[in-house]
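Suppose you are handed a protein chain with no further information: no name, no annotation, nothing but its sequence. What can you learn? This example shows the usual starting point.
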Amino acid sequence: MAFIVSIAGSDSSGGAGNQADVACIEALGAHALSVITAITAQDEHGVQHITHSDETTVQAQLDAVFSSFKVGAVKSGMLPKTVSIQALANTLQDQSKRRPYVLDPVMCASSGELLVQDESIQTMVQELFPLATVVTPNISEAKHLTGRNINTLKEIIDAGKEILKLGCRAVLITRGHAEIEPGMDILLDSRSNGIPYYIHGRYIADRSPRGTGCTYASAIACGLASQLTLYDAIQNAKRFITLAIANAYRVESDYWLLNHQVAAREL
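A reasonable first move is to predict its three-dimensional structure. Written in C-alpha cells, the prediction is:
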C-alpha cells in the first residue's frame, strides 16, 4: 500500500482541495494522508470564508504523518501563508524525508477568488520549487509565475522554460490554450534539454468540474509513488482526470463534481 501526503486546503464542498486529493488517491488504491493548510467554506457560488492554519498546526501534521508512515510521495496544493510554506520546506529538506514531490501552485479558486498572496507565491518559488519533482501550473498560474502573455504554443513552451529556471526539475503546464489542441498539456523536463513533451487527452467542452488541477496532481503523485517514470505517471494521470471529467455529475445548473470512483474503474 502506497502512502501519499496531500498538503492542501480543506474544501467544504468536497469538490477541490484536500477532499479532491483524498478522493483521487483512495480511488487509485493508495492511502491518503492529510496536512490541512486552511479551512475554506465553499459552495456553488465560490469561496465564502477562509481560516488559515498556523505554523504550529501545519508542522504538527507534517511531523505526525512522516513519523508514522512510510510516505511514498508528496502533493501540495493551496499554501496560503509563508509560515506553512517554510514548515513544508524544512520538512522536505530533511534528506530522510525527501520523496517524489508534485507541487500544484494553487493561486486562485475555480470561481476566481484569490487564495494566495504575492508574498507567499514568492516564498513558494524560492523554497519549494527546488524541491519539486514537477510543478503543475495551469495557463493562468504560468502567466503569474513568468509575467508573460501566453496565447500560443510557442509562448507556452517559452513560459515552461522560464519556470524551469526557477529551480524545479520539470514543469507540466495544463489546460492548453484554444490555439493548440484542446485537452493537450505541455511537459518540459530539465533533464531533456528543454524538449517539450505533448500530453494528449480528450477535451470535454460541455462541463468544467472543480478540482481538476488537484486531482491531476494527486494522480501524478500516485504514479510516482508506484515507481513510474515522471512521463508515465503523467500519462496515466491524464487518462484518469479525463475519465473523471467525462463521468462528472451535475449538482446545480453549471456546477459539476468529478467522479473519481468511476474513473478508476474505467482506467
